[in-house]
Fold 22alpha-hydroxysteroid 23-monooxygenase.
Amino acid sequence: MEMMSSLMWIIVYMTTLVFSIIFLRAKTKCMISKTSCQLPQGTLGWPFLGETIDFISCAYSDRPESFMDRRRRMYGKVFKSHIFGTPTIVSTDAEVSRFVLQSDAKAFVPFYPKSLTELMGKSSILLINGSLQRKIHGLIGSFFKSPHLKHQITRDMQSYVQQAMDKWRDDQPIFIQDETKTIAFQVLVKALISLNPGEEMEVLKKQFQEFISGLMSLPVKAKKRMFKIVHKIIQSRRNSSTSSMAPRDVVDVLLKDASELLTDDLIAGNMIDMMIPGEDSVPVLMTLAIKYLSDCPAALHQLTEENLKLKRLKAQNGEALIWSDYLSLSFTQSVITETLRMGNIIIGVMRKAMKDMEIKGYLIPKGWCFFAYFRSVHLDENHYDWPYQFNPWRWQYSTNSNMGTDPRVQEKDIISSYNFTPFGGGQRLCPGLDLARLEASIFLHHFVTNFSPTNDRRWIYKCNGIRVARGLTEQIDCELDNV
Ligand code: HEM
């Protein structure tokens, strides 16, 4: 009996499957006939599963981009596939991706896997569109760019880095990613809600880890607990009379907004949701920079010299380092830029088409996912000479949008902002961009000026499973070992 019922379910399942494929193909055909442009080449793979298994197994391999590269060779720079549980147009064409990122919410809205959207609030900056998104994005972006915040972050981060390094012992390995995770979380929470390291910060960190690692299980409770902590902070801020002072964190910035749109619940929810893009990305940037530098002694040497020079100068003048000192280090900035290019911390971004769209002759049907895959662009030999080689010097004569006319420039192309989008672009350009670069600069400075190949601690890195080609969620354990 039980067997009969399972058999019946299988039949129902298979029938639905076949009908849905026929429906999808018919819909695609009819859309093509309505417009002059073509649905990009490619395949939707297996029913329901699409090409997800192949995509994920490549993502965990040494060459995550092999999934895209194979299809790019077969079908061209823009192709159709079926990943993330939905039919998808993948773009490895910088121009097409740029067009989509620049589009407004009438054409494209953010697309995140269901497991993630269920955790975000309805008013999360990651999900909302239109004027409210532009308002919150604008307020946060200009706050993160402000010299006032940069000054404060520099002071705080210097002390967090110092405290962390003081605890490092010769007889135990240092896990760079763990260390940078702690530091970056402290910086992030300070910038968002002005919470200092301590007991409450530890509770928040623990809850956030549960929240983020439990994306597939039961993170709702963890979010509720975090919400309570943040909500309490917001309420006490409302009750205190600090409105005439300069905003010290993102909560202050949003509370100061005169419109009634930004309720306490919306602000609290957004503080938590903003930890999602901010929490992991910066530590990965720092860890990868250390990894690439340890593989490239010439770059490490030049970076160390540049940072030691600044340190000596400041010591001579009896001055403390300020944020603009860090950002003035041109080779250090090139190292960070090159790490962003090669590391592809965010491999790409996703959108959902709100109507049939035609871009460069390609049809992106309404309701389909669009995946702007940055990784293929950042590793394209047509844009970057020897793309898999860590070469910070390629940025030395460049301001990103223009390589200039220096005869030493070897790059095939001018590196344009089209071809370099680690922080995305358009209306959703990462508002944490300046903060991320500043944090990485401060960390690198303290790391290379305190540890060197000639000291007791040698520059030997044991990288357990570290893959320069980053996949979806792989673990990076970079161990600085004392040999
Ligand atoms: C190396 C570090 C980082 C990288 C590579 C990075 C990358 C990105 C990218 C590619 C996007 C665009 C997403 C899209 O278009 O759908 C984005 C958005 C965003 N990032 Fe970052 N990010 C970094 C650090 C940070 C930090 C430190 C924060 C601080 C809170 C932050 C906050 C955000 C927010 C709130 C958004 C959403 C903006 C919106 O949709 O309006 N990010 N980030």
